[in-house]
Amino acid sequence: MIAPHHDSISKVLANHDAFVAAGAKAIDQHGCYPLLVGIRKDALVGNVRRICQRIAPRTLCAVMKGDAYGHGVQLIVPHLIPFCSRAAFVDNCEAAAIRAAAPEIKLLRLRVGTTTEIAGAMRAGWNVCETIGSHEKAQEINEVGAHTDTLINVHVSLDAAGLGRNGLPMHDESELHKIFLSLLGMTHVRVASVGCHFPDAADSNAADTSDATRNALERFVALVRGMRPRFDEFGRPPPEISAYSSASSCAFGASGVIERLGLHCFDRIGNSLFGLTSTAKHPEDGTRQVMHAATTVCDRIFRRRGSTIGYEHAYVVSDRDGLHVALLGIGWSSVGRYYQGLGKTDRPAYVMNSCGGIHRLLGRQSMNIMTIEASDEAGRGLKSGDIVYLTTDYGESVEAPTVSRLSVLMGGVQTEFITSLFGGSPSSLRFVF
Length: 433
Ligand SMILES: *Cc1c(COP(=O)(O)O)cnc(C)c1O
Prior knowledge:
33% of the residues lie in helices and 20% in strands. By secondary structure, it is α/β, with parallel strands linked by helices. Residues 1-6 have low confidence and may be disordered. Pyridoxal-5'-phosphate (PLP) binds at residues 63, 65, 110, 197, 245-247, 268-271.
């Protein structure tokens, strides 16, 4: 049997001390939670600056749906708003949180609202630009406006990518024209912007003239150009244009296609703000992960050769001298059921100590306790009370548990699924550092 390592992990990661200090303060204020989710302010602001520089003269519409992809609207709004021309949300609770912190910012609802949501936003006086994708919805909003004698801004979405969920169909140009004429004639609706959404642009090649997304984009621009004179005829100000989200903004943002309309354009960016697209095919270069999640080691135990660890005896200790195991006080009920699979299969998964050292997950993980190898590759041993990162882009290791790597390990789930799990977990305490 080897002597157990009881040397403490010395802290060398830049930002680790700031993370721990802010986490301790948050625990003092809000109580103890096993999952510490730190929102890294300098990464967020750095990402936003970089995105704004790249997309200029188009402006930034920060997408904060899903409680800002799990990062927490309240936490991030104060740092983002100074850089944005508008903020986008989906649920009314997100709109309330944005409005509380930013009374002036223009608000855009990213999907078609229900009648109750739209009326609720009206009553609250949030001045929301509501998305419409059908003539019926426009009529409904016009009636709400007439009822309260208010002019309601709308964002007309065209279903350019054929998603079949958010926009007017584009195949019948004369039908689309008729709908626009009707919209422009409505007394309590104003068409503030026209947009489309290409969420699958990751595989696109902007330079290829036969690229499907590029063609859809060209068609979108041609249709809007055809509609443009009608705005003047009706004495309405020209609409603003919004075609890009993170992936399409990176893939097509430099192509100048939508700028040809000569109208103000804004990009709707979510994932890139949080540093979740740096490894994509069309990356937002130089962005950093904003969410860093960590937990504390509960105990360190020893298991001899031949012992099994975790459910289904999936992991068998093969080390001649046995193995030290560190226990973490979270599990897949805290960080999502996909963690259940990690360690059960041959897929490797890791956590990182405050020195940048990597620890393997051992065996199938359970509901609220995780088992990891106590030593990292340099032989540094974790002990009770040490902090390990479950997701972070600290350090250079190719095994560092970044959100993008976890997404691959979890079977290719969307990166925002992971940040939503960590940020939205009832076990987590979120704070800014
Ligand atoms: C979510 C969403 C976006 C932002 O997408 P990202 O890929 O996260 O940048 C943009 N537009 C619409 C309509 C959306 O629903």
